[in-house]
Amino acid sequence: MTKPVKVLAAWVLVALLTGTALAVESADDSGSNDGHPAIVWVGTVATDLLYVPAKLMYAGVGAVTGAFGWLLTGGNTDAAKAIWKPSMGGTYVVTPSMLEGKEKVRFSGS
């Protein structure tokens, strides 16, 4: 394996182990975990490892593109907002409720 792949694999392993530890630690005496099983918390961490960087890249590109749109249209804020709202709005972190289908994940804003 190349070094970047090894580093990525190590980060994924640390995140999964940390997510599992946090899920177990946050369980109260009755064994409940905010109504979510530990595996859902692990899945949430694993999903966010991919989702959050992708969303941040999408929002970042949208922010820069909207700024260029604003400049190229002579300061037309409506044109910039038409780019900013979809790219910078939406969900930035997936939660256990979203993973269970109780809430919607919105990659793009409305």
Can you give a write-up of this model?
The chain has helices at 3-25, 38-72, 77-88, 96-99. With 110 residues, it is an all-alpha fold. The chain has one domain (3-25, 37-99). Helix 1 (3-25) crosses helix 2 (38-72) and helix 2 (38-72) packs antiparallel against helix 3 (77-88).
Secondary structure class reads: mainly alpha
Q: So how many helices?
A: 4
Task: Give the topology string: H per helix, E per strand.
Answer: HHHH
Q: Major β-sheet, in short?
A: none
Gyration radius over CA: 19 Å
Shape: flat
Number of strands: 0
Q: Beta fraction of the residues?
A: under 5%
Helix content: 55-70%
Low-pLDDT stretches are: none
Mean pLDDT: 83
Domain count: the total is: 1
Distance between the termini: 42 Å
Show the helix and strand layout:
Blueprint: H1 3-25, H2 38-72, H3 77-88, H4 96-99
Helix pairs in contact: 1-2, 2-3
Kindly summarize this structure in a few lines.
With 110 residues, the protein is mostly helical.
